[in-house]
Amino acid sequence: MLAVMLMEVYTVGWICALHAELTVAKAMLDEEHDRLPQDLADKNTCLPAGVIGTISAAAVANRMLLTFPSLRLRLMVGIGGGAPGERDIRLGDVVAGIPSGPHRAVLQYDFGKTIRNGELITTGSLNRPPDVLLTAVNILKSEHTLRGNSLSTSVKEMPTRFPLLRKDFSYPGFQQDTLYEAEYDHPGDDASCERCQSAREVRREPRPSPDPVVHYGLIASGNQVMKHGPTRNRIRRDHKVLCFEMEAASLMDEFPCLVIRGISDYSDSHKNKD
């Protein structure tokens, strides 16, 4: 049953950049309320169709505050490209952005200067997530260490509650999780990796459990999709980033929030829509 609420009651803001992200977010909710009237200056419940990037995300965040003046906890949740390396990051895993080294949870990797050897020197820093969210992350991290997480259960239950999502939003299985050597480019414009050379796959040990893992660390954000293995590896190596995405950088200064990304590819040319 849909409930009617007042705008002032809402204290948690959740921004999605893509239609698919919004769909899954709604499917995960325990309760859904009736649609509320919005401030005339607020046109969005997610980023406008066909418009993504750092500037758009910041604009949407500012408009959200006009409609919901009591927001205290702010989340940016969606998909991102993994940066596997020392961390065994795999498809379906989750990355929560928290401060790491000199960086405050999100690194804007296309803002700074590149010196002769290709190293990126950042020339500024972004706001960190609010302390109340970082404290909550630490508590959740401890709980996951002791008892594991419930992500796998939630993902399995979603198609049962919403059968129409079964085709496009079910976990395709670990057999579809293939990581290729960073220097090996995807052949042509093929939509799948059927013609990719198996000899160029990176061999990884099976995990003890098929359940997704939650990682905590730095998220790289920019105004372009990362689809180049060597560049991915260089930025990962230099700054210890765990994943790449496109909306969080300018959002952090205007709308300090916790950025959470589900890993849907490996930030290389072998992106798979499955």
From TrEMBL:
Entry-linked InterPro entries: NLR-like, Nucleoside_phosphorylase_sf
Single GO MF descriptor: catalytic activity
Secretion signal span: none
GO terms, biological process: nucleoside metabolic process
Protein name per Swiss-Prot or TrEMBL: Purine and uridine phosphorylase
